[in-house]
Amino acid sequence: MAKLDYSGFEELSPFELKDKLIEIATSSAQRMMLNAGRGNPNFLATEPRHAFLRLGDFALEEAERSYSYLDSGFGGLPEHDGQLLRFENFLLRQEKREGIDFLKAAFSYAKDHLGIHRHDLIFELVQGFLGCNYPVPPRMLTCAERIVGDYLGKEMFGAEPRKGPYSIFATEGGTAAMTYIFQTLKANGMVKPGDKVALGTPIFSPYLEIPPLPDYGMPIVDIRMNEDTDWQFSDEELSKLEDPSVKVFCIVNPSNPPSVKLSDECLARVAAAINEKRPDLFVVTDDVYGTFADDFLSLFAKCPRNTLCVYSFSKYFGATGWRLGVIALHDDNVFEKALAELPETTKAEVDKRYSSLTTEPRAIKFIDRLVADSRAVALNHTAGASTPQQVQMTLFALAGLLDRDNRYKNSAKSLIRKRFDTLELNMGVKPKHEVNDVNYYTLINLQHLSGRLYGEEFANWFVDQKKGYDFLFRLAEETSVVLLPGKGFEVVDASARVSLANLTEAEYAKIGAFARQVITEYHAEYEQGQS
């Protein structure tokens, strides 16, 4: 076996390292690369996409009603008067086409459950689809915010009562949401260099990489989840939040890469640590995988005053290319309180930042500062996710709300969980399912796998010889399988992240078999050293 040194790549972000692994994996023309390193799903929701296209057909009909006396291809802005009647006629004419029944149900739901008038909804959706106007309001279109807010309530609160009204900012994916939050906290003097950021680790690697940047200069405090307790927090770890120099706590729930949701008991302890010990703490909960979990409950529901909720439609609806994310914030929140308590000198500086927007810059809410800062303040009037994006987001949210029997949800969950079983069985181990496991990803603990296959002494040798990182390159080189290192997500043990969303079941069977093959080769090396 080749003895190559890959140590020079150890400090790369896992997503940058992925490119090197892909280069190695594709070096053999005789093999097809299997890339399980990225979480882009290979499944998607079709009904809301059909509805988007049918809505587009109607929107273009509306545009073509104007200027029809001019050359072909020239349209105008849709007219509000009589539009609902024309839409209902369109639904009758197109009743046999995919997406029409969905649109009928969507409009019925919006009126019955949210009190949204059909006139208002169709006018917003038609203009939004055509993209013929700037987003107004810039933060989020009015009907879209109410519908997406209802969807978040269903998915984030479960059976818990909703704790007062909340506002939503539509962003270009969850990654934009992360960027905007850190930008605005800094721009408003709410965090400064030297303040600490607590991270619930393991965690999506950008959360590890953003705070230390020179722009922020914020040290990281690990609040570690424990694999022995199925990736939950201990009281000892949560006590680190009591440090007053910790200003922000970021958590991904369900976790990335372990893909385990916080248990009800652990979530209650996290909420108590915040509500009782740190009522001033800024909390960011990234709940993008919550829709794949059973009986999910967000920290947004348990700590409403402290928490910014980040959600992305990318994974659940198979829409990573659409770039659809949101930030939600309760109207009663600690961010407003922190702004009010800033020193007068800081307030005066911040006033200057927003003085071009209003004569009362201190009255601008934190969530609206996020919007302004996303466009360097001066371009606040052109801020916001594109209106076609918001229309598709609204239709995705309606799809979730209309999934009353959880047909789509159950299909998505069963698909990824069956892939987990296939992977484990082909690695030669019996699948283990814990009650809080989600399985969008799985984290292969290479020491545990080595021990389960060939015993504890070999597992100890594997760790002592630092074979974990080498495993990823050997796997790519010998079998063209690409996985990501757990180290890049602040996983302590030698491990590899496998996305269970983006390949076929047959391909996960191959990955499992190839992973076992490489471990077996290491075992042969181990035995040779023992003789």
From TrEMBL:
<dbReference type="GO" id="GO:0047688">
    <property type="term" value="F:aspartate 4-decarboxylase activity"/>
</dbReference>
<dbReference type="InterPro" id="IPR004838">
    <property type="entry name" value="NHTrfase_class1_PyrdxlP-BS"/>
</dbReference>
<keyword id="KW-0032">Aminotransferase</keyword>
<dbReference type="InterPro" id="IPR015422">
    <property type="entry name" value="PyrdxlP-dep_Trfase_small"/>
</dbReference>
<dbReference type="GO" id="GO:0004069">
    <property type="term" value="F:L-aspartate:2-oxoglutarate aminotransferase activity"/>
</dbReference>
<feature type="domain" description="Aminotransferase class I/classII large">
    <location>
        <begin position="168"/>
        <end position="509"/>
    </location>
</feature>
<comment type="similarity">
    <text>Belongs to the class-I pyridoxal-phosphate-dependent aminotransferase family.</text>
</comment>
<dbReference type="InterPro" id="IPR015421">
    <property type="entry name" value="PyrdxlP-dep_Trfase_major"/>
</dbReference>
<keyword id="KW-0663">Pyridoxal phosphate</keyword>
<dbReference type="InterPro" id="IPR015424">
    <property type="entry name" value="PyrdxlP-dep_Trfase"/>
</dbReference>
<dbReference type="GO" id="GO:0030170">
    <property type="term" value="F:pyridoxal phosphate binding"/>
</dbReference>
<dbReference type="GO" id="GO:0006531">
    <property type="term" value="P:aspartate metabolic process"/>
</dbReference>
<keyword id="KW-0808">Transferase</keyword>
<protein>
    <recommendedName>
        <fullName>Aminotransferase</fullName>
        <ecNumber>2.6.1.-</ecNumber>
    </recommendedName>
</protein>
<keyword id="KW-0456">Lyase</keyword>
<dbReference type="InterPro" id="IPR004839">
    <property type="entry name" value="Aminotransferase_I/II_large"/>
</dbReference>
<dbReference type="InterPro" id="IPR022518">
    <property type="entry name" value="Aspartate_4-decarboxylase"/>
</dbReference>
<dbReference type="InterPro" id="IPR050596">
    <property type="entry name" value="AspAT/PAT-like"/>
</dbReference>
<dbReference type="Pfam" id="PF00155">
    <property type="entry name" value="Aminotran_1_2"/>
</dbReference>
